[in-house]
Every structure is written in C-alpha cells, then in structure tokens.
Protein 1
Amino acid sequence: MHELSLTQSIVELAIEHAHRENAVAIRSITVEIGALSGVSADAVEFAFDVCSRGTMADGARLEVLHIAGRGRCLECHGESELETLTYTCPRCGSLALETVQGQEMKFTEMEID
Amino acid sequence: MCIDCGCSTDPGSLHHHDHKHDEKTSRTIRVEEDLLAKNNRLAANNRIRFAAGQLLVLNLVSSPGSGKTSVLERTLSDLKDKIDFAVLEGDQQTSNDADRIAATGVPVKQINTGTGCHLDAHMVGHGVDDFDLPATDILMIENVGNLVCPASFDLGEDHKVVVLSVTEGEDKPLKYPQMFQAAELMLINKIDLLPYLRFDLQQCKAFARQVNPRIEIIELSCHSGEGMTAWYDWLHAGIERKRMQA
C-alpha cells in the first residue's frame, strides 16, 4: 500500500499550492497515473478520502487520468503499446523493450476557489 | 510525512463549509509535480552525502524470507577485514535483523517502519546520521521484505539488488516486474536446494531478462558458499568504480 504515501503527497501538494494561490477551497485535483507506474488508481482513490479528511482538500473531487504504456524495442526500434511490463515486441518478437511512456505519477492541475 | 499513517498530523487548515461555492471565483491552476518529488529531493540529498564519502550504496530488496539478512551476514563475515561496511535494516517491527548484523561487529542501525511497507529517502537520511560515512566503503540498506512498494522509492542508492530464492518460484520476475525492472543485479539465493526443488533456473533467468534486458544475475548460496565469490567480485568492482569517479 505505497499508494497511501503517494496520496498523502497529493493532499500535501494540493494544500501547499492552494495556500500559495490564497485559495479558500479546493474543488478538484487531477493526477496522471501511468499503466506501468506500479500504482493502483483504485487504491489512490480509496486512500484519498482518508488522507484528505479534516484538511482543506476534504470534499474535493479527485480525477485520476490513466496514461497508457508505450515501449520501444531495443532490437527493431519500433514502438508499441504495452499495458504491463512483461511483453514481447509485436513486430519482431524480441523480449528486449524499454519503457517510453507509462511510468508517470504526476499531480497535473487543480481547481480552486 | 515520515510514515504512511501520518495523515492525521496534516498541517493543512480545516475546510469549513461556511462559504458558498461561486462558479465565477473558481479557477484552475497547473501544478505539474511528480508525486514522488519530495522523496526524490531527499534521495538526491542522500546521494550527495554518499558521494562525498565515496560510498557504494546498495538497496537490497526481496520478498520476506529470501535470505537477504543471511546473505548479508555471510558477506560481512567474509569481507569485513577488507571492506568497511555499514548496514541499515528496514523492518516493520523488531530489531532481530539488526541484532544478527551487530553480531558480526559491523555498524548497524534498525529502522522500524511501523505500518509502512517500504523505506523512504527521509528514513534513510536520518538512519545514516550515526555512521562514520567517510570511513565506510559500502552501505547496505536492507529494505522491508516486499516485492511491490520499495520499487517506487529512491533512497539515494547506486543500485537496487533484488534477491530471489529458489524456494519462491521462477515466475516472480513476471509477477512483480516493477522490482525486477528497477534492479541492476539479481541474486538467486539458496541454490544448494535446487536438487530438492522443481525450480527451473534457466526459465527464471529468462523471465528476469524479459522484464529487464540489462539485469545482471549471480546464482549463489550463502549457506554452502557456492557463488559467493562472484558476488564479492561484483562488490569489489563497485568500490573500484566509486574510487575512479572520485
């Protein structure tokens, strides 16, 4: 459940930025979670209710955007979509791929009053 | 945020619903910050401290019971006259592992994470405060036994070393790809038990390379001593690289 630490970071970042903007309320928070980041979006959503309770982020809507995974083959250099870290290149069958997208876990934006 | 359960200590102000939400006052601000930014900043600080002491720092990760502590015990006993070690032990509870390491005479500190499922850069930064870092060659950080969460948290180490024992099943790299992708070296431990198990060593190595084409692999048994020399050579080469960088 490392999602609990990460969600705590989401709440801390939200409050920090809200204070900086002299906001009186946080309406929504948007984060990006990559398919290959090792983070469960469901667990983040679940943890958010607990972590935000009693804080300025209490009651805010959390939007989790899913970022698809992409890999590049180290043999044929072709790019392909991948939803897990275990894969073979669909073009040449090589097992050697590197991740080019999908490791993201980012706080992108928030809506404040 | 020292441990996972710190939610209730949040310094943020209470959100009183005594105001009206007016559509016109609402605005969207861009933040664009990595969720691990704070941990990564602290890890970068650790890395600077470690570099100043020319330390080789290894983050040992595995499932519980793979033999991380036993590999460490044997390594320290065999090499402590040639290499100056320090050890951080991460567990949810007890100082059992630190007690075992302390018996070898090597400086050790136990970190208990309580409910936390992984070590983070903050814990490690404070954990090494009592060590004489400039007088240390290798800092071994034994992470909490968990093949999932520790993969995401940079501690400021040079390398993650994942330990997999042959009693666990050869498909662990496929089941927990994040960890095997993050590691530079895999130690396959307890190979003295291979004759008694249906563990496909070649298949295990192929699975690990499927997840991480660059991973180095050493097969060993800290019980029989088989393969330990290859691991020690890897450590010596790591120290040498550190000295060259300085």
Note: Helices of chain A lie at 3-20, 41-52.
Protein 2
Amino acid sequence: MADIAQKWSFAREASPGPNLLARLFDWKPFLVFLCLLPAIGLLVVFLTYPLGLGLWLAFTDTKIGRGGAFIGLENFASLYHDPIFWTAVGNTIFYTATATIGKFALGLWLALLLNHHIPFKSLIRAIVLVPWIVPTVLSAVAFWWIYDPQFSIISYILKDVLHVRSTNIDFLGTPWAARLSLIAANIWRGIPFVAISLLAGLQTISPSLYEAAMLDGATPWQRFRHITAPMLMPVLSVVLTFSVLFTFTDFQLVYAITRGGPINSTHLMATLAFQRGIPGGQLGEGAAIAVSMIPFLIAATLFSYFGLARRKWQQGEGND
Amino acid sequence: MTDAALATPEPAAPERLGVISWESGPRKLVTVYLPLACFVIVLLFPFYWMAITTFKPNNELYNYKDFNPLFVHSPTLANVKKLFFDTDYPQWLWTTMLIAIAATALSIFASVLAAYAIQRLRFRGANWVGLAIYLAYLVPPSILFIPLAAMVVKLGLFDSPFALILTYPTFLVPFCTWLLIGYFKSIPYELEECALIDGASRLQILRKITLPLAVPGLISAGIFAFTLSWNEFIYALAFIQSSEKKTLPVAVLTQLVQGDDYQWGALMAGALFGSIPVALFYSFFVDYYVSSLTGAVKE
C-alpha cells in the first residue's frame, strides 16, 4: 500500500507545470474571475460605459464625428422650451398608459380563456405567440399597409361590407387617429406575451382553492376577486414592469409606421432622440432626450423590486 | 357526495354569472370559444393579409370593386421574383443570419460561464453579481444607442457587422444568464460532488457533466438569443449605413420603400419571408420556448 501511495505522490510531483496550471484552474477566486470575465467584460464595455457616456453626452454639444464641449444644462434648457419635446413626453406617457391597460385587459382575458379545458390547447397557445415572435418591424410594415389611407382593409370592411361608414378612415393622416392606430398595433403585439405569462401564473393556482370557494358558494366574480387576482399578483407585477419598461422605450413600431409624423405629432421620446441624434447628427441633444427617460425607468424598476419583495412575503419563503 | 349536498343551497349561483365555469355546452360556446376565435383571428389577420398581398397581382391589389380583397383570385409569384432577383434581399437574409448566429454564440459562451459561476461556484457576492446582470436587462437599447453610436464611430466599427455582433450581447447576455441560472439550479448538485470526489477539475465538471445535462436549457437560451438578434432594429438602424450590409428588418423598411411609390406587393413579400425563418425556427422548439418563457417569468 505504501508503495502505491509513494508512486502516486511521485506521479503528482513529476510534472509540476500542468499541475500548477490545473491547480490554478481549481483555485476558486481565479476560476470565478475567469468565468465572469466574458459576461461582465462585455456588459461593462458595451452597457455600463455607454450609460455613463450617455449621461456625459447629454451635457455636451457633441455632433457625429466631432467631440463636444461641456455646456452644462443647455441641452435640457432648449428642450424645456421645445414644444415637440413636450409633445413627445405627453405621447410617451399616453402611449404607455393606454397600451398597457389594453394589453393587460385583453391579455388577462385571453389567459383566462386559455385556462379552460379546450381542444388543441397547445396548438392555440403556439399560434397566439406568433405576433410576439415575428420581427416587430415586419409586422409593423403589415400594419402600415392595413392603415393605408386608400386601400385599408379595415376601411373596406366598414364601408363596403358593413356599410357603417361612407368614407375611408384616414388612420395615419391626423394626429389623434395616428396615435390611436399606433396604440392598437402595440396592443396587438403585446397581448401574446402578457397572455402566455399570465397563463403560466394561472396554472400555478391550485384548483382546490376554487373548489373550496365554490363549496362556500362564492360567485365567479368573488372567485376571481379573492383567489385569482391575489394569487396572480406576483407574476402580474413582474410582467407589468417589463411591459411598462419596454412600451415606454418603444421605438420600432412608431419609427416603422409613422416616423413621428404627421408633423412630429406621434413622436415618442425614443424616436425623437433618434431623429435628433443620428440622422440629425446632434448626439448631445439626442442623448439629453434619452437621459430624460431615465427617471421614469428607475420608477418602473423600483416598482418591480417591491413587486418581487411582496411575492416572497406572500409565499412565506426565506431569502432564496 | 357531501359536496353535492353542500352545494345545493345555491345551485344557480355559478350558473347565473358563469364567467369562469367548468360547464360545457352552449354557454361555453359563447363565453369561451367565440371570444377565443376572435382573438385568434385578430392576432393572425396581419399575417394573413401579408401573405395574400404577397401573392396578389397588381391589378387585384388596387381594385377592391371587382375583386374581393380577402382572397387571391389569380396568384402570382411576380412580387417574390422581384424581391429575390431585383433587390439585395438574399444578401440581407444572409447578413442577418450570420450576425444573429455570431451574436448568439458569443452570448451563450459568456452566459454559460457566468451562470455557472453564479449558481455553482458559490462565491461571496454571487447574488449581487446576479442582481447586477438582471438589472442590465432592464436598461433598454433606446437609451444606449446614442452613446454606443459615438463609441462605434470612435472604434472604427461603424458600418461593420462587428458593431452589431459586439453590441447585441448587451441585451442577450443578461437574459441568457438568467435563463441558465434557473436551468443549472434544476441539475442536482450531487452529480458534481461525485465528480469532485473522483478528482475532476471544475472545468472538467462543467464540460463533461453540467453542460451535457443543460442542453435543453442551452437550446432554449439559443433560440431566444437568435430570435432577439434577428428582430433587433434600433442598433442595426443606427450603426449600419451601406445597403448591402443592412440587416433584414432595417433593409425592408429603408431599402424597399423608395419615395412615395410603395411597392406593397414586394414590401409584403419582404416582410413575409423575413418572418418565416424565425417562425419556422420557433415552431420546432415551441415547447422549450413556452416553458422557458414562463419559467423565466416565474423565476
């Protein structure tokens, strides 16, 4: 036995080179550093640094291809007196609020429908997700064609099939019609994500709770109000935060369908930042518009944090 | 059977307001199937419209009086032919695919290592690193593209696919890392302990034990990353200028629309064929997709 042990230790010391390397790779701090390096490196260089750079750019008069000088709050001051900026802020808030309410009302309804025992459930679930999978810009192009002033299929159905209107609807020609059309497209795209996420939340609710409530004579509304709603709240708050965050910073739909028109009346803050910053070349001013979105985003994130904290409390679990 | 006895005092209550009920029959038809059918029709209609516009000849496209617009009367491939032979469409498809694959590979590589370190190496502050990565997901591209554009120009990457391959991981890595942390959690730690006792090194364990078991998780993270990079728009719009290097969503919107003369047929064909690869890719893995999506939300 001792002989074997000696051979083993001999073998171990015979090749110090690879052994040292192997031991280095088993040394935990080094391994942790090595494993985190690619992810953290990418995120620091392309996310954290640009975030800081964006804050800095907002206080300079940088243009594309030319460094700028620090000009203090001048960008924000000029935005403060810019009616287009305030239209964009108002649009963004209105767009986010209306689209979110629409998405969650319809998404919750769809989730409740899908929670029934129905044939071909998995197929229907797969179909329902399609608007969320397909590139937003490409479905936006389809909406652009659906909203065509002359050949809109919606106008055709309302005018020539149902005879409820006598003229075509000018979907994108006037500010309010354009805003509402964009909101409809955003709701259309957002329903699947909300519905599928809420469906997952619904499926975690134990049927025995409903049985108990039915035995106590609870009405369907009472069952929804006192079982479904509170049990769904944790999932709902997370999905809501994500939805608000991504609707607030939406860019693609508006850029693809109206490009901010007619006459800058449908700009969101993101599209205005793009228009001023990239084609307009005023990086500093664009950055200032983008930075103005940050307070709203922080509010949404805090909302998410407290939603999560509440979930732990509701489930009565520890910290993991 | 006491259930029935207890339920008898108010037998009509669930009937009367049947919003959620397990009853079948005509009531279910009105409360469940009819609304569900409306949802499916509304959610799919834009794609149907996209598809039939693609195959309509021009005289049908602009004449609703003589041809019912909801159907194709004499299907034609003219729009498809125009798209594939008169524009750079194949080139755009190819570029988009290459960029999506490269960005996905880079992100999965970084995410696997990070998720393994956070979930399995159990170092101090692992939870904080996890939280920081999660917060990174909450930073939307809309506020990053301007400083990134300045960086990309400075690094000499403007108008190069590398600008996109390097910036897409900013939203892919946080997402994939969180997905994989959840997946690694579901793999029993005992397997790794056994290997540790047998003298395997940490990297051997990752390569020979954890990764093979995590293949379903890797696939779903890969699908997510691929579709997200295929769909990405704002970076591709801001960082790429020359027509032949554009990604598909950007190219369809900026290259197929020239002036006020919209070629709706070709435009719809472009949108349709740009959607099909993602839809196909997704349809093969729909179960992974739904379970990881809902898993990520529940996490």
Note: The two ends of chain A are 47 Å apart (CA to CA).
